[in-house]
Structures are given as C-alpha cells and as structure tokens.
Amino acid sequence: MATTRLDLRLDEAIKAKAEKASALLGLRSLTEYVVRLMDEDATQVIEKYESFSVEGDVFDRFTQACEQAKAPNKALKDALAFTEAKGIK
C-alpha cells in the first residue's frame, strides 16, 4: 500500500496522452500508470548504473588473479576501513 505522495504539474496534452495510454492498458487510474512507468524506468536505470558485464575471458582472468593474489596489505585494509566508515558499498 502506498504511503507517500508525489505532486507534479504537467502540460495538459501530456496528461491527456497519459490518461489515454492508461485506459488502453486497462489500468484503473492515471496514478497507477505513472507509478508503473516510474517503477519500470527506475529499475532499468539502477540496473544500468549498478551492474556490468564482461566479454570473453575477462571474468576468468579476473578470478584467476583473485585466486593468485597475496594477502591484503595495510594500504588495502585501510582503504576498506575508510569505505566502510563512509558507508560506501
């Protein structure tokens, strides 16, 4: 159940177009349509900026390098502590 509001102003033509699209999709309201669009778009944007893929043998080379890595040195441990203290993930 929704618990927060979003107020906005928009051009009448945009609202009319959105209402028509909402009706054509069989949605109950313009709000339902806007919420659906926002959720879908936000999901795509987040996925675009928070994920990546690699081609070819890049992942295999990366995992091999990780497996062959030495124990972390003080600088790396300090960097990890810094990011944790700042809330960086």
UniProtKB/TrEMBL annotation:
Family: Belongs to the TacA antitoxin family.
Gene3D superfamilies per UniProt: Single helix bin (1.20.5.780)
Organism: Kistimonas scapharcae
Keyword Zinc-finger: no
Protein name: DUF1778 domain-containing protein
Keywords from the UniProt entry: Toxin-antitoxin system
UniProt key word tRNA processing: no
Pfam families attached to this UniProt entry: TacA1
InterPro entries associated with the record: Ribbon_hlx_hlx, TacA_1-like
